[in-house]
């Protein structure tokens, strides 16, 4: 296992790589699983915690071992929450839900993709971007079937297992994409509503060069909705953000760059060409 997370030392945010556990709040920690982040919400040693997103396929053992290292030998979350259903965010959801015997929650509009009924739009290999955009047609796109464990998030914005948080609809990357926000300290978990690395550029992904960017281009079919979602999140003025891809951001840099992304989204994030922008 690379960069064994079973030691208690948290990785510095400037050197995060696959297999590293990093803490952005005392009760909010991320784990990088190859190219994507999953999130543990709950104080270390507590039995009251949840997992947000389920990483890449074949990541069950890593995620479960990190859960034990953070929460104890019998670690078992109250629930698994999904920001959306793309393969890199639900890759180990079935295995983890069965292993822990816990419910899974997502937005109602994600249900067809999480119950085996519907495919997401195929990746846009023609979109403006780097090598990963061109290779995105090779990425898995088959829906998974989480029945009978999958449930819809409540319309009132409450989040199972996270009483101090609320979910926010942030469509664009997918129809039912959601983000999570805690008003007390303005902590935010955004999945792929926006990211902090150019996910279509192979070099940027490998080096994890931090750059606040819109959602991954090759998997985003609705750029108007994506822009509106970023603007909605920017209005909340978060203090720290954990994204689905890239290193967390906080403080002055986050405020400056997120305001710029919201203001100039069509220039910074929206690709100049591709099926999704026609």
UniProtKB/TrEMBL annotation:
> What CDD domains does this protein's entry cite?
yflN-like_MBL-fold
SUPFAM superfamilies tied to this protein = Metallo-hydrolase/oxidoreductase (SSF56281)
One of the entry's Gene Ontology molecular-function terms is: hydrolase activity
Q: What is this protein called?
A: MBL fold metallo-hydrolase
Q: Which InterPro entries match?
A: Metallo-B-lactamas, NDM-1-like, RibonucZ/Hydroxyglut_hydro
Does the keyword section mention Mitochondrion? no
- Domain of life from the UniProt record: Bacteria
Q: Where is the Metallo-beta-lactamase domain?
A: 35-245
Q: Which UniProt keywords apply?
A: Hydrolase
Give a single Pfam family match: Lactamase_B
Cell membrane listed as a keyword: no
Q: Which SMART domains does the UniProt record give?
A: Lactamase_B
């Amino acid at each position: 296992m690379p960069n064994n997370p079973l030691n208690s030392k948290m990785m510095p945010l400037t050197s995060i790589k696959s297999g590293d556990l990093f803490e952005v709040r005392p009760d909010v920690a991320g784990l990088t699983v190859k190219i994507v982040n999953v999130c543990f919400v709950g104080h270390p040693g507590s039995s009251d915690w949840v997992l947000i997103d389920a990483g890449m396929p074949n990541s069950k053992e890593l995620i479960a071992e990190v859960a034990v290292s953070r929460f104890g030998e019998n670690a078992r979350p109250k629930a698994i929450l999904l920001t959306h259903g793309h393969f890199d965010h639900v890759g180990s959801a079935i295995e983890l839900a069965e292993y822990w015997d816990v419910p899974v929650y997502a937005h109602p509009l994600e249900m067809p993709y999480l119950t085996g009924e519907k495919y997401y739009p195929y990746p846009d290999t023609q979109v403006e971007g780097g090598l990963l955009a061109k290779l995105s047609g090779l990425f898995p796109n088959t829906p998974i079937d989480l029945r009978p464990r999958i449930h819809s998030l409540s319309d009132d914005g409450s989040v199972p297992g996270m009483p101090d948080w609320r979910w926010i609809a942030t469509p664009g990357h997918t129809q039912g994409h959601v983000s999570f926000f805690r008003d007390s300290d303005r902590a935010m978990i955004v999945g792929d509503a926006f990211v902090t690395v150019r996910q279509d550029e192979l070099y940027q992904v490998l080096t994890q060069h931090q750059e606040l960017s819109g959602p991954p281009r090759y998997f985003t079919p609705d750029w108007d909705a994506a822009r509106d979602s970023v603007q909605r999140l920017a209005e909340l003025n978060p203090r720290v953000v954990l994204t689905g891809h890239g290193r967390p951001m906080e403080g002055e840099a986050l405020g400056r760059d997120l305001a710029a992304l919201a203001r100039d989204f069509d220039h910074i994030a929206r690709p100049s060409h591709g099926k999704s922008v026609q």
